[in-house]
Design goal:
Arc Repressor Mutant, subunit A, Tetracycline Repressor, domain 2
Length: 223
């Protein structure tokens, strides 16, 4: 396939017509998947758009139809990763009506994700480009929907259901995340822990976080 034909719109299965240039979700995902592998292997500075075209299996023309430059591509990749994780933890909190079970499953999902190699490498990359791309750090940690906002929504629903008494939902959400994370994240980020912690250790820490959190905010049952 020539570069010219590759940059034209792709066929849309939903309409039987063709996607407008740069709007085919399958092609966009193909590029982002390739970019993810490149950035995780080489880092932001060493990676090039040519590396991405080879890894993703697209032409340079197609790549630039979807993403204007490496910064835009990297930002889109990080946004995609975050959105997928946020959707995952939101679904996790809906699986059980028991708040302790829901918080446990949420905590385990959170810590498992936070200590993965790909997440640690991504965090290091984001920190490394902070001076040149401060907006990326801001969007990565404080985007409109993130792990904290998902937890805040859950805690709000639990307060309304009479299961918790919390005056400051924002503070409570931050506290629970810190309790679950323990020292795992810092140890992984700075290289003092070479691999994710064993699941039983994560379980121990998350259960401890729930005990502390419930003692502070749980509604006390009257005898």
């Amino acid at each position: 396939m020539t570069e010219l034909s590759d940059t034209r719109a792709d066929e849309s299965p939903s309409t039987g017509g063709r996607w407008a240039a740069g709007e085919d979700p399958a092609k966009r995902k193909q590029i982002l998947d390739g970019a993810r592998r490149v950035f995780m292997k080489l880092g932001f500075d060493a990676a090039s758009m040519n590396d991405v075209t080879r890894e993703a299996g697209v032409s340079k023309g197609t790549l630039y139809v979807y993403f204007a430059n490496k910064e835009e591509l990297f930002t889109a990749m990080m946004e995609s990763e975050r959105a997928a994780f946020v959707a995952s933890v939101r679904n996790t909190l809906k699986q059980s009506s028991d708040p302790d079970v829901a918080l446990h499953d949420f905590g385990m999902t959170f810590v498992s994700h936070l200590t993965e190699d790909k997440v640690i490498n991504a965090m290091r990359t984001v920190i490394g480009v902070r001076d040149r791309m401060p907006h990326l750090c801001q969007r990565f940690f404080t985007g409109p929907e993130n792990i904290r906002t998902v937890l805040k929504d859950f805690l709000t629903s639990q307060v309304e259901a009479g299961r918790f008494e919390i005056d400051d939902i924002e503070l409570a959400a931050r506290q629970f995340l810190e309790l679950c994370g323990g020292s795992f994240f810092k140890l992984r980020l700075f290289g003092d822990m070479d691999a994710p912690p064993p699941r039983e250790e994560m379980d121990r820490v998350v259960n401890g976080a729930i005990r502390v959190f419930t003692a502070a905010y749980g509604v006390k049952k009257q005898s």
